[in-house]
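Aim 2 progress. For Tetratricopeptide repeat protein, the working sequence is reproduced below.
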Amino acid sequence: MRIAFGMAALVLGGAVAARGAGLADGWRAIAGYQPEVARKIFAQVQAAGQPATAREARLGEAVAMLVTQPVSDAQTEAAREKFAALADEGRDDVALAARFYLGRIAQHHLSRPNPAAAAREFRALIEQQPASRWAQAAISRLALLEVYALQLDEPPAERIARAEKLLAWAQQPAARSELHLVVAGAIFHYRLPAQQALPHLLAAEREGNLELITRADTYVQIAELSRAAGNVAQARTFYEKLLREFPRDQRHYLVRQRLMELDGKQPAVASPAPTP
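Predicted C-alpha cells for this construct:
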C-alpha cells in the first residue's frame, strides 16, 4: 500500500493534466489513506465529462482500486485493465504513469509476481520517455529486479553490473541516489568485497535526497568503509556528520570510540559489518 500512496504524492508534486480541485482532492485522499473517498471523487470527475480531466481521473480511480481493502485478484485485474488502456492511449504523463503502475502490479500486486513482465514495462517506460519522472522512478525498481529476481542463474556480480549500467539513464538526483543505494545494498547482501560499495555510497550521499534513517546509515557505512581503507580524513568527516546531524542516534557510543581510535587515544574496537 505504501507504494501507491507514495505515487499519489508523486502525482501531487506536478501536474499530470489540466486539473481542477476535484482531481487534487482525489490524489490527496489517496495520499491520506482514504482510497474509498478518492474513488468517489474520481468517479464524479469522470461523470462531469471533461476530457482534459477524465483521463487523469481514470488513472486515479485505478490507483485507488489497488489499495482499497480488501484487495482481491479480480480487483487488481480490473485496475490492471484500466492502466493498460491508459498506457496504450498515448505518451502523455497519464499514459506514462499508467505504464509505471503496470510494472508495479506485475512486481508486487499479483498473487504470483511476474518479474519479467514488470521489467518489460519499466524498460519500455525508460526507453520511451527517459526524462519523465515516471521513468526516473522506474530505474531503481528495474535495478532491484535485475539484482534479485531476473536471471538468477548468473553470478551476483554480473547482475549487479547490469544494474549499474542503468546509471546511464538516471537523470534526476533522486534516481541516481536510489540506484547507487540499490547497488551498494546488493554488494552487502551478496557478501562481495565491501569496499566495492564505497563509491556508490559516496555518490548517493553527494546526490542528497536521502530519507533521515537512510542518511544516518549511509554516514556510518561510509565512515566504517573509509576507516577500513585507511582514509582517516574521510572516516572522521562522516563520523562527525552523524554526531552533528543525528544527536540521538544509538550509535553515538561506537562512533565516539572510533574517533578516539583515529586520534590514537584507545585500542581499536572490533568493526561491525556495514549496515546494508
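The longest helix spans residues 51-67. This observation will guide construct design in the next reporting period.
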